[in-house]
Every structure is written in structure tokens, then in C-alpha cells.
């Protein structure tokens, strides 16, 4: 090959490489805002955030209170908008609190996508997360089958959080088909595992008639199981949520009946990818109601999926997780 031919081939290869790889700004930075940021669920999301950032050679950071504090989350969101980020992912612990702030960010030209828990009435561009109603239906069917259509159920939740409302709706729709199943109490755990522990202990000590304990939030399931194990209470159904280590260990030991696994890693990973796409290929406006636009370049909802995990598949789930995360 002549020197001229080699030069042209090299120039063409360089040009193709530039076209194949997206170009990123040196100051391109994405944020994920949440509450209870130190719990295993959000640490998985942080790993997805980091994986996406590394893949695309951009900056990404997770922020928010390490306890369940919707007002502190709102304050963190406002502080983040002042940093002029490239885009924001947010899990709306209280949609009514975050709606005006999300709308204000969109008005400033900052793309906002909700993950995990939506703020559907806001101007957020899309929601990436679990079909939470379907997750509730999955859990409700299992509980109803285990109860054989009859029994008292106590549900642990956080009433102000949209995703948990949807899960509860799924459970109640299933229970409505079984008149013998009664929801004896709905407990607000306030994002605090100690509340779940203390409430369960009080029920056990007063010998309350409870046949099934249902946790709609990850913090409650292991605490319920811990109390029942300490007090040597058997024969109860414990339906958990998410896949932290204590929950999976409880399923292996038989103190937790089952759990519903979500994909926080995937939510954050896809979220950064979507924000990056919006940044490099911006729509004509961020304020259009894309959900009502039949030709929208943005989906209204991306379902990342949910998995029922019980004694039959918990070991294979743990093995798959270890295989996926061993190189991180």
C-alpha cells in the first residue's frame, strides 16, 4: 500500500470512529436524587448510575438524605438544579412536594426523568421503573393462594409514595376477589425499619390475629421476619419487597415466604442513557406533553420488570447476582 493510501485509510478509520462514538462535553454531569440513599436498594441504583457514566465517559452523582425525608429530598433537588446539571433522575418520595420543583427545572431547560417512584402530574419527561400495580397483583395472588382465600392481613407501607400506592392498589384488587381476606391494618413505617420492628413486636405480644404480613417497602420485610423468629412465631406468611441480603437470607431460612425483586440498577442505567440522548439530541421543546403526542421521541413509561422470588429460585437469583457483580 502506498503512503498516500495508508494516510487515506487512517483518516477514514479515524472519521468512522468519531461517527460511531457519541461526543460528550467535559462538563456533562447527571444526578440521581432519592431518599434513604444508604439502603441496599439505592446502592444498587448507584452502581447502575456509575456503570452508565463509565460506559459513556460522563460524570454522575447520587445525592439525597440517608433517611426517609421527602422535604430534605426536595431541598436536595432544588440545590442540584442550581448546579445547572445536564440532567436529573429523581425518585419522587412525595410527588406533590416535588411537582413544582420538577416543573421549574423543566422550565429552566434541565431534563428530568423520574425513576422508581413517579411524579405523574409533573412535567417530567418520562418514568423508568417497575409496573408497581402489576407488582402488587403478583404479591396479592401469592398471598391469597397461601391463605387459601381466608385470613387477616397487615400491610406495611408509606402512604405518601406513589409507587407504594400502586402496589397497594394491586393487592387490594386481588383481595377483593376473596371476601374471606381482610386487611386488618395498614401501617405507615415512615421509611424507618425500627417502626416496622416495633409495630410487629407489639402485634405479636398482644397476640393479634394476623395471618399474613405484607411489606410494600424494602425496609419492613426483614424486620417483620426478625420479630417472628425471635418470638418463635411460625405459620405466618411474610411477603417482602426487594432483594437486600437480609430478605434473601430470610427466604432461604424460611422466615420470609417470598419477595418481589425490582431492577434499580437498570432504572438508573437506562435513566442516564435516556438523559444523555436528550442532551445530545434535544427535542424541540421540553415542555410539550409528550405523553399525549403520538409521534413523541420519548416513551411515557419504561417498565424495567419485576420478579417473584421464593424458596424455589432464591439460590439461582443470588448466584446470578454474584456473577453479574463480581467484576465491579
Task: Tell me about this structure.
β3, α4 (95-107) and β4 form a beta-alpha-beta unit. It is built from 11 helices and 12 strands. The model is unreliable at 3-21 (pLDDT under 50). The protein is α/β, with parallel strands linked by helices and 328 residues long. It folds into 2 domains: 25-130 and 263-297, Rossmann fold (3-Layer(aba) Sandwich), CATH 3.40.50.2300; 132-261, Rossmann fold, CATH 3.40.50.2300. The strands form 3 sheets. The protein has a 6-stranded parallel beta sheet with strand order 2-1-3-4-5-11, with helices on both faces. A 4-stranded parallel beta sheet has the order 7-6-8-9, sandwiched between helices.
Helix-strand layout with pairing:
Layout: H1 3-20, E1 29-33, H2 40-56, E2 59-63, H3 70-81, E3 87-90, H4 95-107, E4 112-115, E5 127-129, H5 132-147, E6 150-157, H6 162-176, E7 180-188, H7 193-205, E8 212-215, H8 221-230, E9 237-239, H9 245-253, E10 258-261, H10 264-280, E11 301-303, E12 307-310, H11 314-325
Parallel strand pairs: 1-2, 1-3, 3-4, 4-5, 5-11, 6-7, 6-8, 8-9
Antiparallel strand pairs: 10-12
Helix pairs in contact: 2-10, 3-4, 5-6, 7-8
Amino acid at each position: 500500500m502506498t503512503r498516500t493510501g495508508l494516510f487515506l485509510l487512517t483518516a477514514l478509520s479515524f472519521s468512522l470512529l468519531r461517527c460511531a462514538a457519541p461526543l460528550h462535553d467535559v462538563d456533562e454531569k447527571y444526578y440521581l436524587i432519592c431518599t434513604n440513599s444508604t439502603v441496599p436498594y439505592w446502592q444498587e441504583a448507584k452502581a447502575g448510575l456509575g456503570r452508565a457514566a463509565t460506559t459513556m465517559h460522563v460524570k454522575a452523582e447520587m445525592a439525597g438524605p440517608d433517611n426517609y425525608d421527602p422535604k430534605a429530598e426536595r431541598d436536595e433537588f432544588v440545590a442540584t438544579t442550581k448546579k445547572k446539571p445536564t440532567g436529573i433522575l429523581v425518585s419522587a418520595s412525595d410527588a406533590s412536594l416535588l411537582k413544582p420543583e420538577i416543573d421549574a427545572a423543566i422550565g429552566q431547560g434541565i431534563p428530568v426523568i423520574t425513576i422508581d417512584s413517579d411524579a405523574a402530574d409533573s412535567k417530567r419527561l418520562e418514568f423508568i421503573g417497575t409496573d408497581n400495580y402489576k407488582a402488587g397483583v403478583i404479591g396479592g395472588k401469592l398471598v391469597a393462594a397461601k391463605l387459601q382465600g381466608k385470613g387477616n392481613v397487615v400491610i406495611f407501607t408509606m402512604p405518601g409514595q406513589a409507587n407504594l400506592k400502586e402496589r397497594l392498589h394491586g393487592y387490594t384488587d386481588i383481595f377483593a376477589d376473596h371476601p374471606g381476606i381482610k386487611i386488618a391494618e395498614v401501617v405507615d413505617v415512615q421509611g424507618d425499619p425500627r417502626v416496622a420492628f416495633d409495630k410487629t413486636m407489639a402485634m405479636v405480644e398482644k397476640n393479634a390475629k394476623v395471618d399474613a404480613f405484607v411489606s410494600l417497602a424494602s425496609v419492613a420485610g426483614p424486620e417483620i421476619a426478625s420479630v417472628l423468629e425471635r418470638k418463635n412465631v411460625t405459620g405466618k406468611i411474610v411477603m417482602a419487597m426487594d432483594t437486600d441480603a437480609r430478605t434473601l437470607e430470610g427466604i432461604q431460612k424460611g422466615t420470609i415466604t417470598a419477595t418481589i425483586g425490582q431492577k434499580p440498577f437498570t432504572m438508573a442505567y437506562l435513566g442516564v442513557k435516556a438523559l444523555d440522548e436528550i442532551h445530545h439530541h434535544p427535542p424541540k421543546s421540553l415542555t410539550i406533553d409528550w405523553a399525549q403526542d403520538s409521534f413523541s421521541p420519548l416513551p411515557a413509561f419504561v417498565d424495567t420488570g419485576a420478579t417473584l422470588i421464593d424458596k424455589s429460585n432464591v439460590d439461582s437469583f443470588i448466584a446470578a447476582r454474584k456473577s453479574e457483580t463480581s467484576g465491579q
